[in-house]
Amino acid sequence: MAEAEVNGNAKRKSINWAAVHRRMEAAAVALTQGGVSSPEAKREILRSRARSLARETEKEGMPGERLEVIEFLLAGERYAVEASYVREVYPLRELVSIPGTPAFVLGITSVRGKILSVIDIKKLFDLPEKGLTELDKIIVLQANGMEFGMHADAVVGMRPIALEDIQSPLPTLTGIRERYLRGITGDQVAVLDMGKLFSDKSLIVHEEVEI
């Protein structure tokens, strides 16, 4: 294990003993005023209190929960989806448009021999469109027995995001854009709410397609 990692773990798990001692002194005063006369009883109560305080202090020093996400670009804006929903990221190659499908459905494509529908979040969020390039990717998403591709202008990569860093969407965001956002990070990454995406029946294309 590298020295930096060891030092980092030590910092996260360090205990504020000064605070523990102050609280122990307060506990000792409380014991005296409470009429506990046996020295052994006092020591046992103080030892128990010390263990409890140490656990509380250590817990307070632990880092918050983190969410692993795949970050990608849409119309120059940064978005992210939870990595647990992502099966793979695949280059957008052949795309076949299907007449009669909703505007947000770009078409269908074959990913490792499997036909997937591809949705375009830009259509849902009313973002500026651009022509397809070699950087365009399909983020293959799966959950609840469903699987589809989501178009991305480019994929930045995987990163962790602290849950406490995800703030509620801005009040200026209304309608469908607000509905599908879990929140926005301090560095302006919009985190999509995949649970809502997968549970929204209006996004499911029921028509069978013959290839």
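The record above closes out task 2.4. Task 2.5 opens with a second protein, given below.
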Amino acid sequence: MLADLLHPDRVRIGLATSNKEAALRTIASLLCMPEGIANEEVVYDVLLERERLASTGIGSGVAIPHGRYDGVDELRAAVAVCPAGVDFDAVDCLPVRILVGIVGPRSMPQKHLAALAGVSRVLRDEHKRAALLKAADDAEAYRTLVEP
């Protein structure tokens, strides 16, 4: 599932961000890559609005900020790794080190929910999370996420 949503240009490791808003801005920027067709500011607003409802920090150092936006014609994902961690008001109160952003059009609610479940399933694996955190570069992080 993640392999279908993710593009190598939308994966970044070594992110040094100090707060949730900056992390969401990074994810919004990545979600607009590589073609830059989506409006980054609107994507950020969509992610922020969802975050205001409840934290998307699901625990184990993972957050899945997401939202629906008709400025994209397909579901897409982006990944940012923040080695120092970001306070994301996660359910387990731990800092978030892995962020997976998902955005898709409003016309695909079932696919959106399936994508959230699929990403959650992948990142529930402690070995997958550890490998992602140890990735030497963006390309290795991408391979870690898309290879079985």
